[in-house]
Fold these 2 entries.
Entry 1:
Amino acid sequence: MLDKCLSLIFFFCCVLAVPRSVNVGGLFDTDDTIRRTFESSVKRVTQERHKFPDAFLVANSNQVDTDPFNVSQIVCGMMEEGVAAIFGPHNRFTSEHVQSMCDTMEVPHIYGKWEHSQTRGKGINLFPNAETLSMIFDKIITDFEWKVFAILYEGTDSLFRTHRLLERWDTKSIGIFLYPLGTGPSYRKAMRQIKDDEIENILIDCSIDILEKVLRQAQQVGIMSEKNKIIVTSLDLQTIDLEPYQFSGVNFTGVRLIDPEKPLVASIVEMHKHEWNLNYPSQLRVEPALMYDAVQLFARAFNRLKYTIEVKSLPCNGSVSWEHGYSLNNFMRVTEMEGLTGLIKFDTAGFRSDFQLDVVRVTEKGLKNIGVWNSTSNVEWLFESHVNSTNAELSLQNKTFIILIAINPPYGMLKKSASTMSGNDRYEGFCIDIIQELSKMLGFNYTFEVQTDNQYGSKVEKTNKWTGMLGKIIAGEADLAITDLTITAQREEAVDFTMPFMNLGISILYRKPTKTPPSLFSFLSPFSAEVWWYLIGAYIFVSMVLFIIGRMCPAEWNNPYPCIEEPEELENQFTFKNSLWFTIGSIMQQGSEIAPIGLSTRMMAASWWFFCLIMVSSYTANLAAFLTVETVVSPFSNVEELAKKTTIKYGAKYKGSTFKFFEDSNYSTYKEMYQYMKENEADVLPPDNDIGLTKVLREDYAFLMESSSIEYIIERYCNVTQIGGLLDAKGYGIAMKKQSDYRHPLNTAVLKLQQSGMLTELKKKWWTQKHGGGTCREDGGQNQAEELDLDNVGGVFLVLSVGVAASFFYTVFELLWEVGCTSLRENVSFKEELMAELKFIVKCDNSSKPVRKRKGSSNRSGEDSTRGCTPPYGFIPTIRTSSSDDK
Ligand code: GLU
């Protein structure tokens, strides 16, 4: 009995503890998933009693059509029954109708759908504000630097969604083209127009219901290829099958509100996946998710109203309103919660605020988050370059590139073979080898395509379009271009280049200089003018010094008549004339009859002979070189001189980077040269290097070309050479489409080739070894004879100077010694004797010297004034004493 009583008490307690059930109405039109998420959310609130003890919600779901009358009937029915809030419907018109009914009765109206209105009424819309969404696409396009793009749109709502982008339109810098998708089911017409207009950047704005079909058709039409960049505005992009686009190489970006990797999202979807008919969290669309969040938000707000809320019957024909509706609305606007669609929070205007959108990119591995945008800041890009490069490197594997080449030796050539060849085997050359090496490193395949007109690419100013190889790269007809393709600033604006694989500069190719006619004075060539002047100087100086030393040296005063034992006077052979004759005789290798006797004069003569020996030998040797080596003369030695030569034609490759260099230059000489080339375009601008070379060989024509190509030519054509240095410095690179994902891996690979010495090896192979390389090397190696200048023979002059100085000092010493001896012997003062001696020496016209008689001594004393200077033949002249008195 007691048991029964206790159970009864417990039962009543439980019944009394259960809060009153609260009806919430749901109106659903087309999308059944929204109804399901609504009901699941209500169920979940009732299940989470610990969280929402006061909200025992009961879902009152109703399917509605688009007829406002029918909808109002259903709403009236619900109101009469009593509802705490009405969720939905989705249709714009019926929703507005429901909103006005709810406003009248002050019943909260909650929904989650895109609305273009700039203000929010009393209803609560969980969908992000249209203006905010428009802003994010504007920011993405700014960061992507789209200058020209198409908007492929479904209806007028799309234009509201993208109105910020449309405001960017500017005739000069931003081109925006609108293409309506049309009514479907085929949207290809608009897409074909985009393709025909060659617009590569496309923003697609359409509902998720047709998005899959639109994308599929876009791919069929060919506007979802590697060259295209696509942005899809739908927040539900992630819910469709993106696999067909993952490997197409298209740069495909979108945004998402729901992050399927978030634990909250994953757990809720996992909980309801059967009810919602979903396999993965990423399949959850935004609107159903917003409905789920809307119920959760309502439950939280309801729970916050602590006092008991009575839901009351509100007949449509009455004038009663619900007193708690306004408070509930306010509570909902100030409640913050984390939902499936991120943070749910409203600003004062009633719009969702502080929510976050992920910018996603379709990659081979699926959708990758590449950026984050939250309402307060710009898009924060998450290591996009890293994402790109890793993907690009992966995507290079087994990828097949169309690579443009040009037939221009040695960069690209047709293989000569007896058997017929096909495909890539037909080509060989420096660039072909580089591609081969790169493909080995990066794992891509390739097909070469020859640019038959040899036009590498220049911009047509009128149409703003690019010609040649670069035109094809830009148009997406080829992936890469490699040849002697110069990296220039203008080209870099249109395409991307790898690091240069070869460095070079502009120079002149001209025929080899002609031989100079033999000169009348070519015998002077062995020595420079300076040496000749020094030589003359040395000759005069040495002759004079010899003359002076000769007079000073006592030994040079000799008895002219050996048979006369007591000569009246002594004679000196080094008269001024004889000195000159002695030195010239030595130079001419003929000698003279004059032979120095004194030690000092011999010292002097020896130095001079040594000097003559070296000088004459050098002269002879160098003269031989001058006579055997041909002296050549070029009509110009640099570009400035070429510009002045009116008789020589000159030009560069038509529309090549060299020609462009002259066109863009501000230097007056180059400007004039450009004018000349432009005026004589047909005659002086050959279409390729081969024709330029032929012109050099056949005409009086100088070809301005790149040093690397000149190097190749002069190895093989011995009649031509490079004249002057380089006018600039630049490099060749591999061209690819702007912002290509392959740039980074290709750059790295080119650098590796450079560092490993592979590029040097290849250059050696194709320049100096293959196809006649080195033919002209022997000729080119001929030495030019060079005149000897003072640097070469300065040492000989030094030896001569030392010899002259030594002999001079020795003579002075001899003289002083002799004067000393004489003064002692003659008993005169040293000074007196010295003065007398010097006076005689400086009397240069006198080559005979009277013999002095010793006072009071016999003539035959054997002591004479020449003692101390040993005559060479052991002959001691008999000195006749003479004095001034004798006269
Ligand atoms: N390398 C040049 C170019 O890329 C062609 C040769 C030249 O202009 O000298 O256009």
Entry 2:
Amino acid sequence: MTVTVLEVPTTPFAGQKPGTSGLRKKVGVFRQPHYLENFVQAVFDSLDGFQGQTLVVGGDGRFHNREAVQTILKMAAANGFGRVLVGRDGLLSTPAASCVIRAHKAFGGIILSASHNPGGPEGDFGIKYNIGAGGPAPEKITDAIFAATASLSRYRTLENAPEVDLGRIGETDLGGMRVVVIDPVADYAALMETLFDMEAIRRLFRDGFTMCFDAMHAVTGPYAHAILEGRLGAPAGTVINGTPLEDFGGGHPDPNLTYAKDLADLMMGDRAPDFGAASDGDGDRNMILGRGVFVNPSDSLAVLAANAELIPGYRGRMTGVARSMPTSRAVDRVAAKRGWECHETPTGWKFFGTLLDAGRATLCGEESFGTGSDHVREKDGLWAVLAWLNIIAARAQTVRQILADHWGNYGRTFYSRHDHEGLDAAKAEALMADLRAAPLLGQTLGGRKVALHDDFAYTDPIDGSTSQGQGIRIEFEDGARIVVRLSGTGTEGATLRLYLERFEPDPAAHDQDAQVALADLIATIRDLTRLKDRFGSEDPTVIT
Ligand code: VG1
Ligand code: CO
């Protein structure tokens, strides 16, 4: 039978609106006939000029990844792409996808992931489009995609096309389009070699430095095995949970103190290795721990920035830093001392793209365990781990010493995020509306006077695009700050995020638990939002 292009009539699905990072829904939603196809066609309909061009496709390997890749391959061919690069077994970590798009000058890419959300038949699935620069599509494009989903009447696919064998590296033809199955690790690992002092890290391991990397049964496993145990010579067993599973072994592939508890317990115990790290479902997040110490992601960004000169790929080329609004201002203090630009953007990596492209930011990060640089256009979990290893090797210090030195030089910004997951969505919206409308400016809350109260709005300094409603900020006269926003990545009810921050210049006060140091701010926001009255409990699900 000959392979032909087929136009399949369809009708729109409501709610195919990309959130903080693409479209994320329950697997069951994605498995409805036409659901994925509609979204993919809407993506293609929103793009111009891709005929004959290259598309990159890959995902985090979660349940439904393989079927989705086959669907997208057929649709890409039917819509006129000339070539698709797809990771073996349909795998590509999010930063590796960004790397591949850039390395092969692709038109763009489709990444299949719901990141840190649970997987499996009852779990979540997700899809997003990345542009030719390698980063997540900006809002201009995601808005166009959403608009296209609302009026879709047909999608294009192939009839009588065979399944592509994704298990073997090589090239095949699919309805006149080339499908190239690539090693998902090769381009990424080669890029890492250009950035870090690999020999210094190798020496570290040779001299007995110990590490545990928890890949959480997610996509980073093959990357961590190849780079840490392969190229850097870390002993076998350094990487744990290193085989990607469709359901991540039943867990949340979310590298934080709650969902990566085994690693956290190991690092706090008597038999802790020198260094611990974990990554999330799609490999763009990182958690960093030293023996007996957790590194808050906001501090991690600040430490990486302060020590970037020790990393060959960044020596002499730091121009600026960028952080998402709720991320602590620890990195701002580094930028101020070094005379770098410092940008504050809304939550989500897509807002860093223009700054990175324009050379206005070299490193960027988010409080949500996301750190990265201009080497790709996504946050990058393993990159952050290698950056820490490089700095540890160069400074010949422990994680604890590096942190203490940093706080000694710059002061300590106590910081915590409290997540309240699975809330009633209408009640959570009501909380936000009440908080937005409350006349807080000039009031005294918990002994602090409110100096600023707004809903964060952002104008991109490069392309002038604007974004409103990005989170409520309450700043006090003493510089302390509370931020409140609703998650844009969840698929069940609402998740309320409370971000708490206070600067402490006095080194004598640095060695205390963040929850203790922030206790008054935590009480202030719980009272102000009447959390217990509204939801029956004021205890967070996850504390970072
Ligand atoms: C969360 C984080 C945000 C991050 C986003 C995507 O978004 O807070 O900082 O960029 O996830 O990360 P939200 O809207 O739920 O707060 V990932 O690793 O899920 O791609
Ligand atoms: Co992720």
